[in-house]
Every structure is written in structure tokens, then in C-alpha cells.
């Protein structure tokens, strides 16, 4: 299932887990209480005993796009909390805000303190695990899963079962998180959404943080795009300037 089509005017909210999974919504009516709906969605998806309200607001991001009658232009304001600021490329991909720099939300000691949040780990252990989950809660409050499973955990190595063969597992090996890497990732997401007819998981692995994964996957240069599944393994090494051609090679 593809990403939801983002309208020109909307409010978007994303709720992350400490392990890197995310549920989000795109709402043109800009209703309130979406944070509560997303907590309930996480409870359902991960089989939690109760909604994880303690993730709000420390693990959230919000974006608002509206029409300014004075300037006759669309205006966008996006805010992300420090704990999830590293996911800005993913946020731009799911909300269609390419290249947007998200403003850092103010720290709230009582609700964002990592020491306090850590006390919830024994009761909500699945939140600290990564499930490669990127799920959308649509306007009818129904859960849908888009095609992408962004690498929110760089060390997850799960592969599809035989029943899930109609899908792809891709890995993009990069060196650092610079502007070029962010641009490549955002463009790659767009191309994959346009060209793939089946679900896929894209894992981004920084070899500076995980050199052992580079060695395991025989990666000697960056960027390298690897198709892990379906087999046989295929890869393209070097600058991905022609992303359309790169995708055709990897998925052929």
C-alpha cells in the first residue's frame, strides 16, 4: 500500500517509539486529539497492555501547512522533539515536505526526561525494540501500512518468510549523515514509491557507526545500494545520481 497522498493544506502528527517505529497521520481537517489516537494505534500494533501516553510529547513531531491570505502562499511550520530529530528525512518523506528543516521543540523536563521514560521499559518492552514499522492512521482512524519500512534500527536483520516473497528488502550503506545522504535518501524513497508494485523495507546503515555490517555485506565504498531479498543479492556501488537506473539494476 502506498503512502497517503498529502493534501496541500493539512496537519500531520508522527509518534515514534524509543526503538524507532512510527505511526503517523495526515489530516486535512486538522482535528485535535490525534496524539491519543496514535497511542492507541501503537497499543494495537505492538500488543501493549495500554496506550503509551508517556511518549507524548517527547517522541512526537508535528507539521502544519496552511494558506496565508495575506501573502497568497502556502505556509509550513514543522516541529520535532530532540529525541526524534534524527528522523527528519523520514518525516519529510512521509509528509511530502522535501528539504524542510524541522524546528526543534522546547525541552519539557517532566515529560521528556529520558530517565523518567526509562522507568516504563519493563512494562512496555516492545517499544524499545525495532519492528521496522511505519504505519499510517488514516482519517477514518483505520490503520494502513505504507510500502516503506524506514531504517530506524540500523542493526535489524530480519528477512521475509516464504509467504512474504512478493516484496523487497533493500539496504543503503552510507558514511555519515550529511546533506548529500539526506538528499539521496529522500529521492530514493520517492523513486521506490513510484516504481515498486510490492511492499519493501529500506534499511539505511551508517558504516561509520556499524563497520561490522559493512564487512558482513562486503561493502567497500559508499553509497552502496543492496537488494538483499529476493535473492540473488544485487547491488550498485558509487554515486546514485541516476536513481531511476540504479533501481532498475537492483530490482532486475
Automatic annotation (TrEMBL):
Q: Where is the KaiB domain?
A: 171-252
Q: Name one GO biological process term.
A: rhythmic process
CDD domains per the UniProt record, alphabetical: KaiB_like
Domain of life according to the entry: Bacteria
* Listed transmembrane segments: none
Signal peptide per UniProt:
none
Q: What is this protein called?
A: Circadian clock protein KaiB
Amino acid at each position: 500500500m502506498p503512502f497517503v497522498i498529502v493534501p496541500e493544506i493539512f496537519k500531520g502528527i508522527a509518534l515514534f517509539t524509543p526503538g524507532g517505529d512510527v505511526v503517523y497521520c495526515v489530516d486535512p481537517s486538522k482535528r485535535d486529539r490525534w496524539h491519543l489516537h496514535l497511542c492507541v494505534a501503537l497499543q494495537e500494533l505492538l500488543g501493549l497492555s495500554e496506550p503509551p501516553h508517556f511518549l507524548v510529547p517527547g517522541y512526537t513531531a508535528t507539521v502544519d501547512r496552511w494558506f496565508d491570505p495575506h501573502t497568497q502562499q502556502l505556509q509550513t511550520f514543522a516541529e520535532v522533539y530532540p529525541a526524534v530529530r534524527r528522523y527528519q528525512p523520514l518525516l519529510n518523506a512521509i509528509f511530502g515536505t522535501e528539504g524542510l528543516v524541522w524546528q526543534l521543540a522546547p525541552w519539557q523536563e517532566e515529560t521528556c526526561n529520558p530517565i523518567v521514560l526509562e522507568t516504563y521499559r519493563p512494562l512496555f518492552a516492545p517499544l524499545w525494540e525495532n519492528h521496522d514499522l511505519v504505519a499510517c492512521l488514516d482519517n477514518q482512524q483505520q490503520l494502513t501500512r505504507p510500502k516503506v519500512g524506514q531504517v530506524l534500527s540500523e542493526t535489524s536483520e530480519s528477512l521475509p518468510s516464504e509467504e512474504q516473497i512478493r516484496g523487497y528488502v533493500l539496504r543503503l550503506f552510507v558514511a555519515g549523515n550529511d546533506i548529500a545522504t539526506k538528499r539521496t535518501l529522500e529521492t530514493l524513497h520517492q523513486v521506490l514509491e513510484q516504481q515498486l508494485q510490492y511492499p519493501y523495507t529500506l534499511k539505511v546503515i551508517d558504516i561509520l557507526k556499524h563497520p561490522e555490517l559493512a564487512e558482513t555485506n562486503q561493502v567497500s565504498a559508499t553509497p552502496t545500494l543492496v537488494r538483499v531479498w529476493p535473492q540473488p543479492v544485487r547491488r550498485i556501488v558509487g554515486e546514485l545520481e541516476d536513481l531511476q537506473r540504479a533501481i532498475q539494476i537492483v530490482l532486475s
